[in-house]
Structures are given as structure tokens and as C-alpha cells.
Amino acid sequence: MKIRTGLLAVIAAYAASVGSAHAFGLMDAFMAARQFDPQYRAAWQTREAGLQEERIARAQLLPQASFSYGYNRNWLTQNVENPQTGQTQTNSNDNYPSYVGRIEVRQPVVNFQGWAGLRQGQALSRMAEVEFDGRHQELMLRLYETYANTLLARDQLSIAQSQATALEEQMRSNDLMFKAGEGTRTDMIETRSRYDVARAQVIAAEDELGAALRELIGIVGPGQLTSVEQLDQLVPKFSPSPAQLDSVEQWVQLGRTSNAQVAAGRFNVQAADANVDRSRAGHYPQLNLVAAHQRDEADSVSTINQRNRNSMIGVQLSVPIFSGGGVSAQTSQAVANYQRAQAELDATSSGVEVELRRQYALVQSNAAKIQALESAVESATLLVEATQKSVAGGMRVNLDVLNAEERLFTARRDLAQARYDYLNAFMQLRYYAGVLTVDDLQTVARYFAPPGTYGRDSAYSSNETEKIDMKAASRSPSASVGRLPASARAR
């Protein structure tokens, strides 16, 4: 059988040359993604910028010191009228220097806007922190999905190639039987038609794998290209245990308290509430303690050739009277933004609850689906063997063999998809609960092994008997209560 070479040929050649020692596991990909992924790096810088909000707001309540200095050269022509004689006398003072130096310290004493701004800055800084925790969890989830999609594409290609090879062998068998007078031309046409479709599926699978590899490289970096080509493979079988998970209501409650999006929404509401007080404080007076020292020489016409020193300390009261309605408009705007933030928090909480219930159901349903599809693959394998024997005995025809093989390869594809979907739901459930950590990613990584560990096509083979007990790899939500991943620990 001739199939398109190119990317897959390069991958195969490299795999044969380096072996499994250079396998690129899920945790390897995660370490590379933390260094390269543009979205993660942008999230880190967003966090760093957000943490400054509190410091910026606090500065408005701390002492403010300023220094100013001015030096000038002056040319003065002064016309002075004598009131007695009515004559004008001209005095000139050419090119004389003047300077003014002033240092001032101002300490807010009563500043309602500043205190409200501090509360707003604190809420925004906390929001930046929890948003980054959410981005860190999202990186793990996004990396797994991309990594799994690449492996699934590779599995689908392997299945498509196996199907095309089986149909090619069937074509040879049809040709031999036709030449011996035992087959029909219809059998040959049927098999040829299925073979052509299988070849098209191989080409499509190659394209899917190439696109998936490029997407994964976009997360882990082009420097990992040779490693990405040596991705781990899913272990042959594992036994998920959905019964050991706690009730969905506990997951929902955990999501309400620990989900990063919900927590960020609460801080956003707090910031919006503080902004209402800050805007309303535009009507309130401000009281500042002011101390200043000034030195000057000839800073005005009347002080030519005079040097002065002036020190002062006192209080300054500023009382707003009318601002054209701007303060009232800003307050109304802040109230509207607060109500919007509250509505967005309600929507986020509702969406998180929906996703938690959905992912909890997917964990259970995919676990049952895996067991059913494993049985389906075994049954379909036996059906193909039995149908081939029946054809040889004259009880079945060529079309029956083709249909049986089609069911087998379809079951294999569905089984591979179900296994990846189960692990994805396993992580999604923890992500929406807000407790997805690197430990969970390591748990999922145990379901993968270096290429060649279990032989070819082991990801969907029904002949392997090794299993992994999900009970040893899972963590109940009760063990994660109150463990919203801190950025230092998560990173």
C-alpha cells in the first residue's frame, strides 16, 4: 500500500533512531510550556501589573514630598512716574539673577477618596492573584487537551493505516479467489471501494496529526520539536472507578468557594463597591497637613537684591462646592458598574455549577463507556475472525467480512476517544472546582508510558491485560477543600 510520506515519515525515522529514551512525557511538556507558552507568560505579566494596584492606591494616603527650583536671568526696564512733578523716571537693571527653591511635604489627614481607593486597589490586587491561579490551572488543562489530541490523532492514524492494510490484504485474497474461480468481481469492487476510502482516511489522519503537532509545539516551543515527536502513549487499559468520587453537590460547593473565576468575580464586586464610595467621596472635604521651606532671591520686582527664607507648617482644608455635576455622574456610573459586576458574578457562578455537574456526569459516563467499548472491541475482533471462517466455509460473503472489520475499527476509534475523554473530564472536574494542581497532572501522566513500552497500537489493543486502578490515582474533593492552589505552590 502506498500512502503519503512527509511529516509522518520523518517522525517514524526519528523514532527508530532515538528510541524511547528521549520520550517527551506530559510532565516534560508542562515544564516546557511554563517557560514558553505565550498565554501563560502574558498571564504572569498581567498578575505582576495587577499586584501594583494596592501599592498605587496606598501611595495616595502616604506623605507626598516635592522639590522645585527655578533660576533665571532678568533684564528689567522700569518706568516710574513722579506724582509731584508728573515726570517719568526710567530705571534699568540689566542682567540680574533670580532664583526660587522650594521643598514641600504634604500628609493627607482626612481623605475619604484615598481610603476608598485603597480598598479598591486591594481588591484588584487580590483579583489579579486568583486570576493567575486560574490561568495556571488553565495551562495544565489546555496542555493536556493539546497533548491528548496529538496522541489521539496518532492513534487514529495508526488505526486508519491498520484498516487500509487489512483491506489491502482482503483485495489480494479476492484476486486470488477470483483467479481460482471461487470469487466474484463484485467482491473485488466492494473491497476496492472500501480500500480507497481507507486511503483517504489515512491522508486525513496525517493532516490531523500534523495540525495537532503544530498546535502542541505552539505551547511547548519549537525547541522541543524532536521531543514532541516522541510523545508518550496511553497505557493499554485502566480501570476508572467513578463510584469512589464524592457526590456532585460537594463538587458544586467546592466550586463556589475555590473556583478561580468565581473568586475573581467576588474581588471584582468588592472593587466595584469601593469605586462607588470613591466616586461619592468627591463631594467630601479633604484635610492635609502641609510643611514647606522656601529660599528665593529677587523673585519679583519689589525684591531685587533681596534674599528671603520662608518656612511654614499648617493645615489645608479643601471643600468641593460644585463640579458641574461630574461627581454625581461618576457616582451613577460606578453604581451601574457595581451592579454589572454582581450580575457577571452570578452568571459565572451559574456557569461553573453547570460545568461541574456536566463534568461529574462525564467522568461517570465515560468510565462506563470505556468498559463497554473494551468489550465491544473484543467482540468485534472475535466477529471478524468468525466471519472470515464462515466465508471460507461458504456461509458468509465478502461483504460480511468488510462490515465486521468496519465495526472493529470503529470500536477501536471510539475506545481511544473515550479514554482520552475520561481523563479530560477528570481534569475538567477539578479545574471547575478550583483545585486542579500539578499533583493532578502527575496523576494523569501515570496513564501514559514511553513509546514501545507496550508494543505497537497498545492504546487500543484488546490483548493487553495490564490495568491501572483509578482508586490509587484519584483524589476526592474533600481532600482538596480549602486548597485553592497558591501561585507559589502551583508554580
Write the layout of secondary structure elements.
Elements lengths: L6 H12 L7 H11 L1 H22 L4 E18 L6 E23 L1 H68 L5 H36 L4 H4 L4 E2 L13 H11 L1 H21 L5 E12 L9 E12 L7 H67 L5 H36 L4 H8 L2 E2 L37 H4 L1
Helix pairs in contact: 2-4, 3-4, 4-5, 4-8, 4-10, 7-9, 8-9, 9-10
Q: What would you say this structure looks like, in words?
A:
With 491 residues, the chain is α+β, with helices and mostly antiparallel strands. It has one domain (23-68, 92-490): Outer membrane efflux proteins (OEP), CATH 1.20.1600. It has twelve helices and six strands. A hairpin with a 6-residue loop joins strand 1 and strand 2 (88-110). Helix 4 (112-179) runs antiparallel to helix 8. Mean pLDDT is 81; it is low at 1-21 and 456-491.
Main traits of this protein?
491 residues; alpha+beta; Outer membrane efflux proteins (OEP); four-stranded antiparallel sheet; two-stranded antiparallel sheet; 12 helices; 61% helix; elongated; disordered N terminus; disordered C terminus
For the largest sheet, list the strands in their spatial order: 1-2-4-5
The Cα radius of gyration reads 38 Å
The largest sheet, given as strand count, sense and whether it forms a barrel, is:
4 strands, antiparallel
The total beta strand count reads 6
Q: Write down the secondary-structure element order.
A: HHHEEHHHEHHEEHHHEH
The figure for the number of domains is 1
Distance between the termini: 48 Å
CATH class: Mainly Alpha
Mean pLDDT: 81
Beta content comes to: 5-15%
Examine the coordinates and then state which fold CATH places here, giving the name of the CATH topology.
Outer membrane efflux proteins (OEP)
